[in-house]
Design a protein that fits this description.
Strand content: under 5%
Oligomer: single chain
Largest sheet: none
Radius of gyration: 24 Å
Distance between the termini: 15 Å
Number of domains: 2
Shape: globular
Order of helices and strands: HHHHHHHHHHHHHHHHHHHH
Length: about 475
């Protein structure tokens, strides 16, 4: 079930919120009964799209919860490492079987000229996200950064909480441990959450989905011009940003309505002045997960340069592989690993001394190259598109078709570019701070604007508009 769907917006979410808030809180103020409501709702949400894998997810949750109990009782380093290793084997084993088995079989067949049949297993939605969430709990428990969760229902609620279950952000147990037992519910928090959700929904449906149509049309076109290449690159760059950041906004917004504080996942990545800066802003929960649980345990930067290179490439190969069972994702990850090594060891502080405009252009160009590697299947096809982006192998500067679509989508592309900057937030803050005597116009304008946005989104959805979601693939 997509957040950006009529059943979710007008059936599942209102019903869940209604049952959640009419469920009474005990005198102690604990939210255990409301957690049960969320747990049941989350399993229904997941079963809507993946009924066959609900049992698999539930079994993993119980297994990792049980290992957590045993880990907390372990008294020796060896025993703790044993239980952590067991958790990793179970979690990564399940993820590897469902997500990567056919990749390894196909690679083995190609390497040795064999024809072992592929398993062709359907990928459970969100398995990459909830696997990392459970592992973060085990790792933090082992390092004594969190205390053990003894209630299996509360642990299950943390793992399968529907706002962030299928597409993140990757919420660590330490982020919400205290909120699983007590959390704040106020009208202001609910209003803030509803605002964040509606804005994210508009980003997803009105911008990402519409720009996705352009990307799809251009990709299917026979025109091979310089303009068509860049039209696709710009469209896909905006699509994936508004698609994923919009979904993250919706998840964070629903969490806020329910009393949870989820971590931010995006911080205007396209205004970055280096690739290092970009990865501090894009999919922040994944970047910090790999930093804390892979990069730093490997030694981070506190090692000799050659070892540091290895740490960076290991992390970025894994980052790419996390995104998909395909060599192009590994190449995409390693590409950014190479760029980050160059930035650190070759450029040093020179990037910081560049004029901001030049640094920004440099960063955006490298990001665009990365998106080509990420999305285009087949290294030959990716190389051809990269060539057209610099004028190699093109059928000219522009064609009638690309010029037509550029004119048709010019306004939307401009809005997308501006929307990827802090400008809309700045305007919103100025409107919120506007006063006419003792009257605050935003108190009236905000609910009207949100209602109009929701009405417009609904019209797009009822009309059957294009509604893909890229990160459901992962």
């Amino acid at each position: 079930m997509l957040f950006s769907s009529v059943p979710f917006l007008y059936w599942f979410l209102p019903l869940t919120l209604a049952v959640y808030f009419i469920t009474p809180l005990p005198a102690s103020g604990t939210t255990r009964w409301r957690n049960l409501v969320l747990l049941v709702a989350s399993f229904i949400f997941y079963a809507w799209g993946e009924p066959i894998y609900v049992a698999l997810m539930a079994a993993e949750v119980v297994a990792l919860w049980g290992i957590g109990l045993l880990l907390a009782r372990a008294t020796t380093v060896r025993a703790k490492r044993g239980w952590v290793g067991t958790a990793v084997v179970i979690a990564i084993g399940v993820l590897g079987y469902f997500k990567y088995a056919d990749f390894f079989i196909n690679s083995f067949n190609t390497a040795f000229g064999l024809s072992i049949p592929l398993l062709r297993i359907a990928l459970p939605i969100g398995i990459s996200f909830y696997t990392f969430q459970m592992l973060s709990y085990i790792f933090d428990l082992s390092a004594e950064r969190v205390t053990v969760q003894r209630n299996v229902l509360d642990f299950a609620t943390y793992v399968v909480l529907f706002p962030q279950l299928v597409a993140g952000p990757i919420v660590r147990y330490s982020d919400v441990a205290a909120q699983l037992s007590t959390r704040s519910h106020t009208l202001q928090r609910f209003a803030d959450g509803a605002t964040r959700f509606t804005v994210g929904l508009a980003k997803k449906v009105l911008i990402a989905n519409t720009i996705a149509e352009l990307a799809t049309i251009v990709a299917a076109s026979d025109e091979r011009t310089f303009l068509s290449a860049w039209l696709w690159v710009v469209a896909f760059s905006l699509q994936i940003y508004f698609d994923f950041s919009g979904y993250s906004d919706m998840a964070i917004g629903i969490g806020t309505m329910l009393g949870f504080d989820f971590p931010e996942n995006f911080n205007y990545p396209y205004i970055a002045l280096s690739i290092t800066d970009f990865w501090r802003r894009w999919h922040m929960s994944l970047s910090s997960w790999f930093r804390d649980y892979v990069y730093i345990p490997l030694g981070g930067s506190r090692v000799k340069p050659i070892r540091h290179f290895g740490n960076i490439f290991a992390v970025w190969a894994l980052t790419g592989f996390w995104h998909g069972a395909d060599w192009r994702f590994i190449a995409w990850g390693l590409y950014f690993g190479v760029v980050l090594v160059i930035e650190k060891y070759a450029f040093g502080g020179r990037l910081l001394r560049l004029p901001a405009a030049l640094a920004h252009i440099y960063t955006l160009l490298l990001i665009c190259i990365g998106w080509v590697l990420f999305e285009i299947a087949g290294f030959g096809n990716a190389a051809a598109l990269l060539g057209r982006m610099v004028g190699i192998g093109t059928a000219g500067l522009a064609g009638a078709e690309s010029l037509y679509y550029l004119r048709s989508y010019a306004v939307l592309l401009t809005l997308g570019v501006l929307g990827a900057t802090p400008l809309p937030r700045w305007i919103g803050e100025r409107i919120a701070a506007w006063r006419i005597g003792s009257f605050t116009p935003s108190a009236v304008l905000r609910p009207i604007a949100l209602a109009l946005l929701l009405l417009l989104v609904t019209a797009f959805l009822v009309d059957g508009s294009f509604n893909p979601f890229i990160y459901f693939r992962f």
